[in-house]
Specification:
Strand order of the largest sheet: 4-10-9-8-7-5-6
Distance between the termini: 30 Å
Low-confidence stretches: none
Number of domains: 2
Structural class: alpha/beta
CATH superfamily of the largest domain: Type I PLP-dependent aspartate aminotransferase-like (Major domain)
Number of helices: 11
CATH topology of the largest domain: Aspartate Aminotransferase, domain 2
CATH class of the largest domain: Alpha Beta
Strand content: 5-15%
Bound molecules: pyridoxal-5'-phosphate, (2S)-2-amino-4-(2-amino-3-hydroxyphenyl)-4-oxobutanoic acid
Radius of gyration: 22 Å
Largest sheet: 7 strands, mixed
Helix content: 25-40%
Amino acid sequence: MTRDDARALDARDPLAAYRDRFTLPADTLYLDGNSLGALPAHVPAALANAATRQWGDRLIRSWNEGWFDAPERIGARIAPLIGAAPDEVIVGDSTSIHLFKLIVAALRLDPARRTVVSEAGNFPTDLHVAEGAVTCVPGARLRVVAREDLADALDDDTALLLLTHVHYKTAARFDMPAWTARAHAAGALMLWDLSHSVGAVAIDLADADLAVGSTYKYLNGGPGAPAFVFVAKRWQDCLDNTLSGWMGHAAPFAFEDGYRPAPGMARWRTGTPGILSMAALDAALDVWDGVDMTAVAAKSAALFEILARAGTALGLECVTPRDPAARGSHISFRHRDAYALTQALIARGVIGDFRDPDILRLGLTPLYLSHEDVWRAGDILRETIETAAWQDPAFATRNAVT
Ligand SMILES: Cc1ncc(COP(=O)(O)O)c(C=O)c1O
Ligand SMILES: Nc1c(O)cccc1C(=O)C[C@H](N)C(=O)O
């Protein structure tokens, strides 16, 4: 693939116009939108409006003018991106907090089932939260097994199968209908973490019971943006939220001593939502209105091919599945000094990230990366490896986050 080939792909890219809806530094090739999505250009004005007009002028009245309903209203905007109904999704809290609520709820549903099954190497918060959640339910336990042993781990003690749809390191994607069906065949509930798949791949939760996901990655909601939680309609009146805060009460402003859960998704609220973060997410979702996920998937596959070929030509091991249906929208290479390599790339304006111990991870966000951008990133990767630039001792010092 030459630079001209990449330009030719850009010339017929149906998503090309979306690039102008984002603010990105001119000297940067941003391949980390799978960790923190880029800034949609109109979001600062929406934030300023939320601060100066809604907060500054309207003050407390704003709770009646859109703030109170924000979790449900914004959740309904995310629903079509995950194949859910508008009244099956709300936003608020973080993915970790939603995981806690749902794991405890699933364990409390059927006292005869005591085990949560999850995958070794799942994103740490999923495993850590599950580890804590099982201590809140008598007799409950967490069973963490390798991917190839998951099917055998499901039995008549399994209350919940907790899987991350697209793996944060390798981008390997579970077959959602098949795994939901396996969980159900064992009599368990299925909880999907969609953090690395929402906005990256087309999702149809279909028969799934529960889901959570981050909005600050492909949905570009901003750092720490409120996460979403999905509960299938058939479970909404049966599952209880242990973090039973006043905002999930049937009548929060009746100020009753006793807790009565709100009907529907509102019971998954806990405390007062962070309205400024909600405002940023709400505005960021404008970009996703009407986006054709088939076009996103096709472009993601084309961007992947550009980097996969560049990396393979350099002798890098690609740990991401080659089949587009079996992966998300990032590509990961194994390198014995992946940390230094990542830092050398960042110093050259290619922002990706390192995942311990040996993974260089590059996010492919079809809304704001062109084929030529990704070709250039591949070319800078080539130059960095061929000149052994990553061996500079300056790149060996570890930062806290990337
Ligand atoms: C699969 C997965 N779940 C959850 C999270 C994050 O959860 P939280 O937003 O609560 O930090 C991440 C990334 O940070 C993730 O990759
Ligand atoms: N949530 C993050 C944060 O607060 C700081 C830095 C990175 C993150 C991430 O999103 C990490 C990400 N989930 C990952 O896949 O590695």
